Amino acid sequence: MKKSCCGSDTIIRHAVDLFAEGGPDGVSMRDIARACELNVGSLYHHFADKETLYLAAMQHAFTGKTRPLLELLESERPPRHKLLDLVDLLCDQLADDATFRKLLQREILDGDQKRLEILARTVFAPVTEKLLEVCKQAAPAVDSFLLIGSLFGMCLQHFQFTPLRRHLPGYRKEYEQAAVISTHVRQLVACLLDTNDRRTNPK
């Protein structure tokens, strides 16, 4: 195969798409080299092995999503507004990027503890630390760690279960729209925050 000028960033972008479809076990270094129009030897010049390339691809894909979340959480908005706006941002990201959804779901289901630990430490920990602070400020009467899980879970499950939900009673096409989902989840989060306010500031 003719060698191209494909660099590390381009290799990673191709790898993200391939891994989203086939997972780490379903994609070979030869598959990635073919997509990049590289010979396999040139691919190993950039990445020592497939595991190294896979982790680089996951970090690239997830960091691109966590960076806007971190910027939102570090903004000057009130804590309540940050949580509600976070719902909008999450739903937009999940709706706009099927590759990101596939990668996230595949990693969770695969359950490789080594990879999950690396991703948690290098990608998700900074957002989680900041989100813990915001949750504590917005809802001090609620467990912040569990609230984070509920926020992400409520957004994520609507997109992950879409293929099944289409066949369930009560389904409507608009339930696949990010704006519809985020409005619904925002209402639930607002109710929780209102309940917290009544508990922490009784009249």
Features:
mainly alpha; 203 residues; 10 helices; Tetracycline Repressor, domain 2; Arc Repressor Mutant, subunit A
Outline the structure in words.
- The protein is an all-alpha fold and 203 residues long.
- The chain folds into 2 domains: 1-47, Arc Repressor Mutant, subunit A (Orthogonal Bundle); 57-200, Tetracycline Repressor, domain 2.
- It has helices at residues 8-26, 29-36, 40-46, 50-73, 79-96, 98-110, 113-138, 144-160, 162-165, 178-200.
- Helix 1 (8-26) packs antiparallel against helix 2, helix 1 (8-26) crosses helix 4 and helix 4 runs parallel beside helix 7 (113-138).
- The mean pLDDT is 90.
What's the quick description here?
The protein has 203 residues and is mainly alpha-helical. Helices cover 78% and strands 0% of the residues.
Q: Per CATH, which architecture of the largest domain?
A: Orthogonal Bundle
Rg over CA atoms, rounded to whole Å, is 20 Å
| Secondary-structure element string | HHHHHHHHHH
CATH C-level name of the largest domain: Mainly Alpha
Share of helix among residues?
Answer: over 70%
- Write the CATH fold name of the largest domain: Tetracycline Repressor, domain 2
CATH superfamily of the largest domain: Tetracycline Repressor, domain 2
Q: What's the number of domains?
A: 2
Total helical elements: 10
* Uncertain segments: none
SS content category:
mainly alpha
**Mean pLDDT over the full residue set:** 90
How much of the sequence lies in strands comes to: under 5%
Compute the separation of the termini in Å.
Answer: 75 Å
Shape verdict: globular
Largest sheet, strands/sense/barrel: none
